[in-house]
């Protein structure tokens, strides 16, 4: 996150603001995690748990954690971390958009901001799509499916 430039913060035309999430993370991530958990997604709670434990604070080179806010309320989150299997690549992770905000382009814009940030640090971004819907989402952005790896899709940035 420390590599985030002011230009990476954007106000969207629909009133949603995308900006880095920082230290301290705040209670809004816990509320978003509960919303996600009710849909069967536990990966957002891991952001708060790993942050509190000091395991992952999105501070390594190229890493970033962004949130989308609507009237101050966190409605979506997405992160970029070093790809565990390739230190020169980055991995999109912990990506979630609240159900009532899906289909409005918020997820795409959040991903685009993370990818634009990643261009300065890596030639390739990976993602592990946890569902068919997620796979379709990532492919619509330009990621290509892949098998036999710990990630399911890659996107070449150069």
TrEMBL record:
Top-level taxon of origin: Bacteria
The chain positions of domain N-acetyltransferase read: 16-158
What keywords appear on the UniProt entry? Transferase
Q: Name one GO molecular function term.
A: N-acetyltransferase activity
Keyword Transferase assigned to the entry: answer is yes
- Family matches, as InterPro entries: Acyl_CoA_acyltransferase (IPR016181), GNAT_dom (IPR000182), NAT_camello-type (IPR050769)
Cleaved signal peptide residues:
none
Any single Pfam family the record assigns to this protein: Acetyltransf_1
- PANTHER family reported for this sequence: GNAT FAMILY N-ACETYLTRANSFERASE, LD18367P
Q: What is this protein called?
A: Acetyltransferase, N-acetylglutamate synthase
């Amino acid at each position: 996150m420390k590599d985030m430039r002011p230009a990476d913060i954007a106000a969207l035309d629909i009133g949603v603001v995308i900006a880095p999430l920082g230290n301290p993370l705040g209670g809004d991530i816990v509320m978003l995690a509960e919303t996600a958990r009710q849909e069967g997604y536990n990966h957002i709670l891991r952001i708060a748990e790993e942050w509190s434990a000091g395991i992952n604070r999105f501070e390594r080179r190229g890493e970033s954690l962004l949130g989308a806010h609507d009237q101050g309320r966190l409605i979506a989150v997405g992160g970029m971390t070093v790809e565990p299997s390739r230190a020169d690549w980055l991995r999109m992770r912990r990506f979630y958009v609240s159900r009532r905000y899906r289909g409005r382009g918020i997820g795409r814009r959040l991903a685009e901001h993370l990818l634009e940030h990643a261009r300065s640090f890596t030639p390739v971004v990976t993602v592990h799509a946890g569902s068919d819907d997620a796979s379709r989402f990532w492919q619509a952005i330009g990621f290509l499916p892949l098998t036999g790896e710990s990630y399911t899709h890659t996107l070449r940035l150069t």
